[in-house]
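Form 7-S
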Amino acid sequence: MLVTDAIVLSHFDLGEADRVLTLITPEIGKLKAIAKGIRRPTSRVGGSLEPFAELRVQLARGRTFDVITQVVVGHAWLKLRDSLESAATAWYLAELADRSLEERHPAEPLYALLHRAYELLDAEMAPARVARWFEMRLADELGVRPEVDRCVECDRVLETGESYRWVPPLGGVLCERCPGPPASRTAISADALKLLKAYQRMDAEGLAELRLPEEAERAAEIALREFLRYALERDPRSLAFLDEVRAPRTVSIAT
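Output:
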């Protein structure tokens, strides 16, 4: 028997009444657990095993999946659910966490990161800012911190007033003096580069107070999405829904 904190990353229905949930826990990491009978009206745990909440779960070992035998809600983060954009962002962050983890490897830093992101969304911080904050710190956790201060080709400190290119396969920014690979033609503005530096260095509270042009926000979004697409090898499925919710303000990115 095991008792642990957990956040639901995803789930799917099994049979007529059961549900299999993918959970992230601090000590065990990602695991799959079955909630038997959860879809019956008489289920004792059905109302507790929801996304966007920190849970205290009791698990018993099963043959295929761990079995959830008891659930207590720790933090419900109810305000997060009031905004469709915040909820869609929460699903997106959960999917990024899911794709970044192997099963049953300790994941305390990533658990804390997702926990903090949900706190920020619940506190009504701009969802796009929370997403960029999370993406940049996830890149750190994956060991692929993007280079935003020096040219990834010649290691020269980037100078004010020059032009820059964003090249995820090389790990960050390319200066105007370096040709780079043939496909590295994505220009990035000085304002967008400043914002990427801010996401890398500032805490969430400081980021919430930043005032930058909308164009810089969109460019930083595109840059970090491209970077994580390269790191994780594909876009999360939840991005399509998130962009639909945010339309017409969102920027679609070709795959």
